[in-house]
Amino acid sequence: MTRIIDSALDCKLLHSGPTQDESTLVLLRSKIFAIAKRLGISDLRREDILLVAAELATNNIKHANGRGMIQVWQQPGPVLDILSLDYGPGIADIAQAEQDGFSTANTFGKGLGAIRRLSDESYFYSQHNGSGPVTKWSGTVFLARFHLAADKSGVLGNDIGMFSRSLSDTRHNGDRIYLQKKDGRLRWLHLDGLGHGAEAQSATANLASHVDHPEGLEAILAGVDRQLVPTRGAVAAVCEIDTARRDLQLLGVGDMHARIFEKDEMQYVSFAPGILGREHRATSPFRATLGQRSVVVTASDGIRRNWDTGNFVGLFNQHPQLIAYTLGNIMGRVSDDQSICVSVVGK
């Protein structure tokens, strides 16, 4: 069986902290030292990661008045992501800001070029503040990615992004994403265990094998439904994309939500009410043929629904992992587990 990615094992928030003042750098350095030691990262590689993290934190302190955060994530690959997100004024002219050496009070200046040279991949998104009919977040997001293994076959690549964070960052997370790429097919099962804590996590555990079911999405959810009967239950969405034909199928039960972005327009997909393992209505798949470039998003109810393209102008043209981190951090509810899966089909 082709390997199935499990967000509980492969998508981990290792550190999250505010960037309020210079003391941030001391704590951040200590955290990265500990992470590097635990993951067996070489001293040279660790120094590159430290330099990038320090540059990102310093820019938050200087240009966003400390109203931001630095996060360290482990993703499939293995990959280490350093994420900077702030709530500052944003950058009015992104193209100019990306020129190495350019510097104003609202840009990364020379540090941007250094970050890009030291990291294996880097992605950048900003939204400038301003008045208008739509309430928009303003600020800057920067993702610096480091590959921790010479063999990159396990890296999800440029078509998948995942965000999964437990309530209050405890060790129990009832949200779970199982994902598999196989024979030109991308399929994932996205679950939210009822409630939160250890019982919710237990309900969504040990369901990976259903993703590899030889039949359709109805058979996958039926198998999950049966296995959840002894538990408190869960809601779920399952998605399948034939990447060659660009055929999309979405099927779900309960309070999950999905969106499809194409040609600057967002389509919302809802699911049948109910709870798997308990009572729920019969449901049938949503089907669509995707265009030249499409973004498909599934999210648990730990992610607020009141956003669209107007709130995040240009975001859905970015790398899927940057999309997932941005939505997860800005639209996540502090009262629940939170998770997002983002897939980009086409270029």
UniProtKB/TrEMBL annotation:
PANTHER family: PHOSPHOSERINE PHOSPHATASE RSBX. This is Transcriptional regulator. Residues 23-124 form the Histidine kinase/HSP90-like ATPase domain. It holds the Pfam family HATPase_c_2. It comes from the Bacteria. Gene3D superfamilies: Histidine kinase-like ATPase, C-terminal domain (3.30.565.10), PPM-type phosphatase domain (3.60.40.10). InterPro entries: HATPase_C_sf, HATPase_dom, PPM-type-like_dom_sf, Ptase_RsbX.
